[in-house]
Amino acid sequence: MNRAYSRVGGRARHYQRISVTDSVTTSSTGAGEVGSVELESVTKRFGTMVAVDSLNLIVKPGEFLSLLGPSGCGKTTTLRMLAGFEQPDEGFIRISGQYVQGVPPYKRDVNTVFQQYALFPHMTVAENVAYGLRQKRTPKSEVAARVREALGMVKMTKLADRKPRQMSGGQQQRVAVARALVNRPSVLLLDEPLGALDRKLREEMQIELKLLQSQLGITFIFVTHDQEEAMSMSDRIAIMLDGHVEQLADPETVYEHPSSAFVAGFIGRNNFWKGISNGNGLVAEDGTVFVATRPEEHVSNGEGALAALRPESVQLRATAPETSTNVVAGQVVGVSHFGDSLQYVVRAGNRDLIVLCPRAGAIRLAPGDDAWCQWSPDDVYFFSARQADLVMADPAEAAH
Ligand code: ATP
Q1: Mean pLDDT, rounded, of the chain
Q2: Which of 48, 49, 225 should be mutated for ligand 1, with most atoms under 8 A from CB?
Q3: CATH number for the domain formed by residue range(s) 2-109+185-256
Q4: pLDDT at 78
């Protein structure tokens, strides 16, 4: 059976081994329970700038939830309000069932890990981790045991006597995580904690952090602007735009069923066409007709619309297919190798289509070759011009 460490019984003093199924909450949201986080109509302004705009969000106990979005969308401000470093102008926040209005950071059931590890350079690893407990005048024997426990969780026991300068960035970030975990919070807030690490180390740490979170059963609220990071680690992702949550769902849902053109442009990549819905699909501005299985789900006939198609949903052919439905003819203008996949850029008229083929069995074409792009009506999805207003000009641009 899948096992997890979880805090039980309110301000429990020990992590207790329980099963994941035991820890499943009785209500579907877990609101009000230890480890839950609730934001109700939370607004934060800086002068006239609305950084967070009437935000509603319920994070379940033991959940790994990422706040994902472009720069300036309000992720860090949201996290800082949960930590108690900023106060909302309107609305309410409950952590583990407690309203935290006016409650200082150190009295909340949360701890924060920042991108900059902010370790004390003159202290050893163990002293850094013990610092918070010592400030709270925790008995010496308890400090030692808890520091050992926290360092064990991040596999840093052997480096307990090192100074920060004697460690790699990844090791220092582990110490920063241990320093937060030593307080045994029900909720860990992580603000771009892997942002300063190189790509390989970042990927290793993603796996380690995810593993740690599922073992401990602590709620993680993880701020990132890296969609791959959010997709690979999270139970659910809150995709933020202009201070509100645009979509809140599990990674598969946000990828397969983006709720708006903005989300479709932000998560993964897409080919987009602007045009007018004709009831069966879309007539693009360049005259290309796109047939979709369920265009009416998003757009009514005659309405301005945006069609979106994932690069991996396009089949590339070296000869013209028998059908002309959902087919675009063009020429290869670019080929890129991504290890496990090949990416082609096919120029059709005055636009470029991105096509992604798994390397195994991929068709081999070179720049200058004729190519036909074909896709299934099931794979095209539509957004109304009204809904896509924000990104009609250039959805991919708007996402960055
Ligand atoms: P990034 O990914 O770049 O860190 P973010 O999504 O975390 O962005 P926030 O840091 O929450 O965004 O900022 C949201 C908005 O609030 C931004 O427009 C930012 O400039 C503004 N802002 C944040 N903190 C302050 C502050 N202390 N004073 C004034 N404006 C602020």
Answers
A1: 85
A2: 49
A3: 3.40.50.300
A4: 97
Residues 219-244 have pLDDT tens digits of: 999 999 899 999 999 999 999 999 99
Beta carbons within 8 Å of 154's beta carbon, 6+ residues apart: 174, 175, 177, 178, 181, 208, 212
pLDDT band at 386 (very low <50, low <70, confident <90, very high): low
Q: Which fold has domain 270-391?
A: OB fold (Dihydrolipoamide Acetyltransferase, E2P) (2.40.50)
* Beta bridge pairs of residue 42: 55
Rounded CA-CA distance 70/369 in Å is 37
Between the CA of 52 and the centroid of ligand 1 the distance, in Å, is 9
| Of residues 302, 303, 307, the one with CA closest to residue 290 | 307
> How far apart (Å, rounded) are the C-alpha atoms in residues 193 and 176?
9
Percent of the chain residues topping a pLDDT of 70 = 88
User: Dihedrals φ, ψ of 92, to 5°?
Assistant: -130, 150
Q: What is the pLDDT of residues 309-344, one digit of tens each?
A: 999 999 999 999 998 889 999 999 999 998 889 999
Beta partners for residue 309, in sequence order = 271
Residue closest via CA to ligand 1's atom 16 equals 51
Domain ranges of the chain: 2-109+185-256, 270-391
Model-level pTM? 0.83
User: How far is the centre of ligand 1, averaged over its atoms, from the C-alpha of 105 (Å)?
Assistant: 19
Taking only the tens place, the pLDDT of each residue in 292-312 is 877 666 677 888 888 889 999
* Ligand 1 mutation pick, 55, 76, 245, max ligand atoms within 8 A of CB: 76
Q: Give 336's contacts (C-beta < 8 A, 6+ positions apart).
A: 342, 343
Cα–Cα dist 357/364, whole Å:
10
Contact partners, residue 361, CB within 8 Å, separation at least 6: none
Of the candidates 22, 23, 1, 2, which has an alpha carbon nearest to the alpha carbon of residue 218? 23
Identify the residues whose C-beta falls under 6 Å from ligand 1. Answer: 46, 49, 51, 69, 71-77, 225
Summarize pLDDT for 154-181 with one digit per residue, the tens: 888 999 999 999 998 888 988 998 998 8
Strands of 236-241's sheet in order across: 110-113, 187-191, 219-224, 64-68, 236-241, 244-249
Is the separation of the CB atoms in 312 and 356 below 8 Å?
Answer: yes
- Whether the CB-CB separation of 262 and 396 falls below 8 Å is answered with no
